[in-house]
Amino acid sequence: MSRYLKDILDQPGQLLQSLQYSADNGGRALKKAAGLITGAKNVFITAIGASWNAGIAIQAAFNEAGVQAVLCDAADFLYFTLIPPDSAVIFLSRSGKSVELVQALPKCRLAKASVISITNAADSPLAHGSDACLLTSVRFDHSISVSTYSSIILTGLLLTQYFRPQYPGLLIHDALMEPLRETNSRLTEWREIIEDTAWPEKNAHTYFTARRANLASAHESMLLWEEVAKQPASALTTGAFRHGPQEIINNPLNMAVWLESNTARDHDVQLVNDLVAKKVNVLVIGQELPAQLRGHAISVPSCPGLFGPVINIIPMQLAAEKLARMKGIDPDIFFYCNFIVESEGGL
C-alpha cells in the first residue's frame, strides 16, 4: 500500500480529530478570527496549490454568509494586489512556510491589515506572524496533501459559521460528526466502485466540473491528477463547460461531475445523461443521487450547509491512486516539486 493511499484511508479519523480540536482548544482562536473579520471592510483569502483549492469552498461560504471575500493566488497577492485600509487577510497553508505567503506578511503589516492563518504548523513563520492562528490539528501527510487539504476546508468553513444569521455554535460540530463517521464506513464501498468500473480510462482526457463550494473538489482533483498520476486535466464550473468547452466531447474523455443537492440539480442531471448518451465516460459524485441518473455514480453522506467538499473529494483521491497504478507511477514521489516550496524561480 502506498503512503498516499494510507493517508486517504486515515483521513476520516484525522478530520474527526480536527473537528474536535476546533470545538475545544481551537475555539478561542476561531472566535478571535471572526472578530477581526467583523471589524474589516475588505476580506482577502490567499493561498497557493491545494490550499488555494480549499479557498474556493471557504470563499463560497463567506459570500453566502454575506461577507464578500476575494480569493487571491498567493503569488499574485504578493506582487500585484493592493491591500486597502481596514482589511483582513486569511492565509491558507498546510506548512505555513510557502515562500509567497511568508513574504506577504510584511506587506500586510505595512498595510495595517489583520492577519489570520489556517495552517497545520503551529511553529511556522505564518503562524507566528498571525493575529489569529487557526490550527487544523491533523497528522502531516507523507507528500500529497490529503487530510491537510480537507482539514483546511473544515476549519475555514467553521469560521464562516460565525457570520450566519444564527450562529450554530457547537451544533454544527455535532451535525458534522455523523457524516464523518459514515465516510469512514463507506471507504471500502467507494474503493470497490472505483476499482470495478472503467472510470477513469487511462488514456483519456479528464475534465472535472462542479458548482458552488464543490468547485473546490473539481480543482483539487485536477491537482491530484497532476501530482499523483502525472497527467494533465482540466477543472471548471459546470455552467462554464456548456459555453464552449463541450465541443471536446468527441475525444476520448473522462468526466467527473459533482451534483448539487438542490439548485441547478435538474440541469446537471440532464447534462450528465446527455454526456453519457454521447459515449462520454462520466462519474457523478453527490448526495442522495436520483434514480434517473446515467453513468457511474458515488453517493456521499449528506453534510450540513456547504461542508460537502470536506468529504466529496475522497472518491477522486482514490481514483487518482488507481490511475497512478494503471500508469505504473509511484504516487509517493515528486519528480520536480518540493514538499514545501520555499524559494522562487525555476522548477
Polypeptide structure, described:
- The structure is a single chain.
- The protein has 347 residues and is of the alpha/beta class.
- The protein folds into two domains: 3-167, Glucose-6-phosphate isomerase like protein, domain 1 (Rossmann fold); 181-327, Rossmann fold.
- 46% of the residues lie in helices and 16% in strands.
- The strands form two sheets. It has a five-stranded parallel beta sheet, with helices on both faces. It has a five-stranded parallel beta sheet with strand order 7-6-8-9-10, sandwiched between helices.
- The longest helix is centred in the middle third of the chain and has 27 residues, at 170-196.
- It is globular.
- The two termini are 29 Å apart.
- The mean pLDDT is 95.
Low-confidence stretches: none
- Structural class of the secondary elements? alpha/beta
What's the number of domains?
A: 2
| CATH architecture verdict of the largest domain | 3-Layer(aba) Sandwich
Shape, principal axes of CA atoms:
globular
Q: On the 0-100 scale, what is the average pLDDT?
A: 95
What is the overall number of helices?
Answer: 13
C-alpha termini separation: 29 Å
Assign the CATH class of the largest domain.
Alpha Beta
Radius of gyration: 19 Å
Strand tally is 10
What is the name of the CATH topology of the largest domain? Answer: Rossmann fold
Strand content: 15-25%
* Order of strands, widest sheet: 2-1-3-4-5
Q: Biggest β-sheet, characterized?
A: 5 strands, parallel
**CATH superfamily label of the largest domain:** Glucose-6-phosphate isomerase like protein, domain 1
